[in-house]
Amino acid sequence: MINGSGQIIALAGATGDLGRRIANALTARGATVRALLRTGTPEGKLAAVRRSGATPVVVDFDNSTALQEACTGAACVVSVLNGLEPVIIGVQTQLLQAAVSAGVPRFMPSDFSLDFTKTRPGDNRNMDLRRAFQGRIDAAPIKAQSVLNGMFTDLITGQAPIIMHKQRRVLYWGDVDQKLDLTTKDDVADFAADVALDAQAPRFSRIAGSAVSTRELAAIMTRLTGTPYKPFRPGGLTMFSAVIALVRTLTPRSDDAFPAWQGMQYMRDMLSGRGKLSPLDNNRYGKTD
């Protein structure tokens, strides 16, 4: 754990689940956290930010001068913003420009994903947005430090229902032995806090709490529940791609960052192995695998 005493971190997205956890991890290290919040943020969210130990700074993100002032003096600007192009490209670019104008030395973009640098353009909308922002930040006069973590562990029984409790099955497409990178949100936040405070952190830090295959997940669920779980394979990745295309066609236009077909695109990148994290940086800050 890095001692953050004396460092100021400007954090955008502190009202979200991961953002709140990162704020907690930073303040636990002694860092001073400025939570950059948009004008009109409800008082309840401001209070929640204060409980994390961060200081709310309400700012109009469209006001470049005000945003620059909010970033001034920070050692790193951390973005945990979530959304589609208007946010990932638009608002993040405003934040990036403010950080550069304020002379902030480092910027952590809101990547927190599988390894989008290895995925195929056009296969995953949200990874394409990260790739597009990567081009902007890598061209800017600031050091970028991204954290890549695979999939949040809690999603495998929620938004990405890999584990099917009622059917006692573990869903997969393709290879039953393909390893999947899973990391809890608390572990991601813990590692991200260290990276935000580390001027020597690399461009990309890749972490995984566990790397397990579908076959291994089925064995783990069997052991935990005492009830046999089995892998369930509806088809290969080519068929999965066809299903994704069909679901996307049938889904009404939505501003949701994670419609069903987007989650399926994410799973395809994991199950294909294209988004696999390697090498891992788990031990960079004295943490175990």
UniProtKB/TrEMBL annotation:
Coiled coil stretches, renumbered: none
Keyword Zinc appears in the UniProt entry: no
Alphabetic keyword roster: NADP, Oxidoreductase
Keyword NADP listed: yes
Sequence ranges assigned to domain NmrA-like in this UniProt record: 8-228
GO molecular function annotations of the record: oxidoreductase activity
SUPFAM superfamilies given in the database record: NAD(P)-binding Rossmann-fold domains
InterPro entries: NAD(P)-bd_dom_sf (IPR036291), NmrA-like (IPR008030), NmrA/Isoflavone_reductase-like (IPR051609)
Protein name: NmrA family NAD(P)-binding protein
